[in-house]
Amino acid sequence: MQPIISVQNVSKIYKGGFQALKHVDLEIKKGEIFALLGPNGAGKTTLISIICGIVNLSEGTVNAAGFDIVKDYRAARGAIGLVPQELSTDAFESVWNTVTFSRGLFGKPRNDAYIEKVLRDLSLWEKRHTSIRELSGGMKRRVLIAKALSHEPQILFLDEPTAGVDVELRRDMWAMVRELRRKGVTIILTTHYIEEAEEMADRIGIISKGEIILVDDKSALMEKLGQKQLAIQLQHPLTEIPANLSQYALTISEDNVTLVYTFDTQNEETGVAEILRKLNENGIEFKDLHSSQSSLEDIFVSLVHGND
Amino acid sequence: MNFYAVKAIYKFEMARTWRTLMQSIASPVLSTSLYFIVFGTAIGSRMQSINGVDYGAFIIPGLVMLTLLTQSLSNASFGIYFPRFSGTIFEVLSAPVSYVEILLGYVGAAASKSVMVGMLILVTARCFVDYEIQHPVWMFAFLVFTSVTFSLFGFIIGIWADSFEKLQLIPMMVITPLAFLGGSFYSIDMLPPFWQTVTLFNPVVYLISGFRWSFFGVADVNVALSLGMTVLFLVLCIVGVAWIFKTGYRLKD
After folding, report:
1. Chain A within 8 Å of B253 (Cβ-Cβ)?
2. Bigger pLDDT: A294 or A68?
3. Rounded to two decimals, what is the model's pTM?
């Protein structure tokens, strides 16, 4: 299937000489939720800004909805909605006016019924006549989403959509994003909240220092790179790992009462049974076992640090 | 052509005018009316006519032009500077609009406001001073031409400025003095020969002179030259705006 966004060999060098993107290749599939993760300054916002037409690219090509973003900028931009990271709003305008302005700006004829639906879906209908400066931060974020959706885009960029919003609103937004995806909108989100990507994304891309270092299905990524840890709580403190257990990736906790074994879930033999048997042989008694899977955050940190 | 976008920008800009009616319309009309009362009715009644025109009527074109220049500059510069300042410019830059459409929206709205203020001042002036317009079509043409030209200039200032102070710098420090010294209150014939020559380097002289000709049929400089200078300034502003859009100066990295 033809990707809805295709980024090929895109580089960006700012006037000061800083290279924000280095030969980036990326394809986004139609109808998916794609999470772009990366530390501050990795190039996430620059990449989004290039695709949306806010920043000029230095090299490469980008197609959105099958249109070149430079040659066919009208068709390409018309297919995209952007919710920016900053809460940039027309403070003195009413919610209704600012959302209808966005629809017109993107070349769509007036459609009050559609705007009403968008505002109702985002719980903004009661606030439609309210000046934006009177809204809370979370409500302003919803207004930005309403503006981005006002022209019925096929592709929606959410740049740090839940930054600074409370847990309840975050859950609401996740539900709204899923609903949009259900309707066929392709969603690309950047986030610092790993749990957000873990909760919502179909695929994940990791960008670091202007380079895409990994793109994969979220589940495959966690399966491939996920490590598991087994914590063995001992009856009595242990100061040294016995010689016949030295071949395993075992560490002793600071209080000497927990043995931690890190293993790869992909291996046929995890070594867990063998370790437990050898602990018995050595007369080391344990009172509890606890295992945990590494989170997306752990994977992200290890990948980004591995790229340092 | 994305007409919906042009209409959206135009309506959005005009909405600010209606929202701030006192500041946008009433204030410039009132302050210019004070000039008519002080210089036209009070002092003007004791002054000799200039080129056969009563002093009170003589200053009308200059005062309208003074307001037109400052209003066009401030309307257009604020119109584009504020979205840059607040960050909402991202939406215009990411929208499927061409630079011509952006200009039509922003500059069109700024020029409309200026023409509106100019016409209101003319109507208000009639309450204080008797005057006639010999060439109403040319008068309106000069009004629109000057508003568009200086709105374009204001658009350039709004892109160039990176602070509210800079936004005010050229209108206050350059345009207002040029308008005052460009024959708003006097004919340049009244100046000593040396200062007459110096004054001819002031571009605003040509605007005021041409505009005054449309009212009374008398001018400090040839009307064709006035028109030519207005067109030249318009072309310079178009070139400036075209360069901004081509390079993305202060708009796009």
Report:
1. yes
2. A68
3. 0.83
